[in-house]
Structures are given as C-alpha cells and as structure tokens.
Write a structure and sequence with these properties.
The chain has a domain of 56 residues. 42% of the residues lie in helices and 17% in strands. The chain is built from 8 helices and 9 strands.
C-alpha cells in the first residue's frame, strides 16, 4: 500500500486515529522486517498502541485455532446421531452377531446422507479417530462356537449342572477326591472359522457367534481326576476307515489311542 506521511498534528477524531493505527498494523504485516517504532513515526501513532493491537490480534488468532482444534466446528455427528450409532451396536450384539467396523462406518455414512442437504460420508481416518475417542464403544474379537452350545453358556445352566453334580456325590456317598473322575469328549473341528472384530458397547467383553455345523470333527476323549493325579492318555477318534500316517503329529507322546 502507498505510504502517506502524517503530520505531527493531533488527529481530528478517534476514527481518524483508529484509521492511522489500522494502517500502521497493515504496513507492518506487509513489511515483517520493520519495527513498530518505525510504523509509529510514519503514521504518527503511539508505539504502545501498535504493540497492544498486535498482541490482541495474536491472542484472537490463537483462540480461533484452539477452537478449531477442539473440533467445535468440525463435529461430524450430532449427539443424537452418536446415540443412534451406540444403540445400533447394542442391537447387533443382542442379536448375536455384532457390528463390524465396516457396518458401523456404513451406518454413519447413511445418517450423513439423510441430512438436509445430504452430506458426504466422513473419511476412514476420521472414523478411526472417532472410535479411539469414544468411551461407550470398543472393539473385540468374536469367538465362533457351535450353535447348539451357544445357549448353554448361561449362569442358570451352570448352576443346574453343579446342583446335579453335588446331588450325585451325596447319593453315592463320595467324599474322597481320588474317587471323583470326569471323562468327556471334546470335538476339534477341522477348518474352524476365525473370529472377526466387531464393535460392541463398552461393558461387553466377549461375544460368541454361531459357526456352521457341516464340518468334520476329530473327537478326543479325555479324563481328569479331582485330586490332580496323572490322567490316562486320551483317545482320539478320527472319521474314516483307515488311519493315515500323516495324521500322526510329532507332538504326540506315543501312549495315545487313535481309532
């Protein structure tokens, strides 16, 4: 801007002095190597007034940056939309499946598309940051389990089982732990599916999901004594007519029974 040298006369009004001050600040911005005292001589304003104006402008700029950093103007989801996403994750958990990260991201994108005017979906980077800062949701890995065993993992079923167990001990007057043995079969599924990461409410720690049953099993019969004595070797039952040599793993001890 062209420099106009003002005389040492007192300005006619406050607005004129303010105009001189604004011009001095603008001149300093255009000439960062100059000092406020130089501007005060050119525009005939007090150096202290220039310094105070520069200080206030800097503070206002810092406050504006802090507001943007807190996300006040960049908030993607409203409180109502955030509550809807949390309810969606809870419903998916109660349904026994759980919501994957892609499902939750798609739900957020759908909510944004229903706004007026429609908004574009947020970035995946924003979604990851939103998940990290969310105190009501977290990510866990599901545990596949046979469908007919999903309903047995309840406190009521376990209490019923132990009730029958203690009744049996009383019926046969069994008191010594060496006379208490448990023998059970455990199926090892061939080609067991892996779990997947899902987003659930923060109070949920585990999620079992049903896995398909049309898979082959290797059955292992094992026993254990209540006193902790050495158990008998397990019996491994494989499907088929013949036992293949490739089925015999190196970590077997040699006293197992394979049939």
């Amino acid at each position: 801007m062209p420099i106009e040298l003002y005389t040492m006369d007192t300005p006619n009004s406050t607005s004129e002095y303010k105009a001189r001050l604004d011009n001095s600040i603008q001149w300093l911005q255009e000439n960062p190597g100059e000092k406020p005292t130089t501007a005060s001589r050119i525009f005939q304003v007090k150096p202290e007034a220039i310094r105070v104006a520069i200080f206030r402008a800097r503070k206002k700029k810092e406050a504006r940056k802090a507001t943007i950093k807190r996300g006040g103007h960049n908030k993607v989801l409203s409180d109502t939309q955030s509550s809807a996403i949390q309810l969606y994750c809870k419903e998916q958990f109660e349904g026994g499946l759980g919501a994957t990260r892609q499902m939750v991201y798609s739900a957020i994108s759908f909510l944004k598309s229903q706004e007026e005017p429609p908004q574009p979906p947020p970035s995946w980077r924003w979604f990851n940051g939103w998940m990290k800062s969310n105190n009501n949701l977290h990510t866990i890995k599901t545990k596949p389990i046979a469908q007919n065993r999903v309903d047995t993992h309840s406190e009521k079923d376990l209490e019923g089982w132990f009730g029958k167990y203690h009744a049996t001990l009383d019926k046969y007057n069994i008191r010594k732990s060496r006379n208490i043995w448990n023998m059970d079969e455990s199926g090892a599924r061939v080609g067991c599916p892996n779990g997947e990461e899902v987003i659930v409410p923060i109070e949920v720690k585990e999620l079992y999901t049903a896995s398909p049953e049309n898979r082959k099993f290797v059955t292992i019969i094992e026993a254990i004594c209540a006193d902790g004595s050495e158990p008998p070797p397990p019996m491994i039952i494989c499907p088929g007519q013949r036992i293949m040599e490739s089925w015999i793993h190196d970590n077997l001890l040699g006293n197992e029974v394979i049939a």
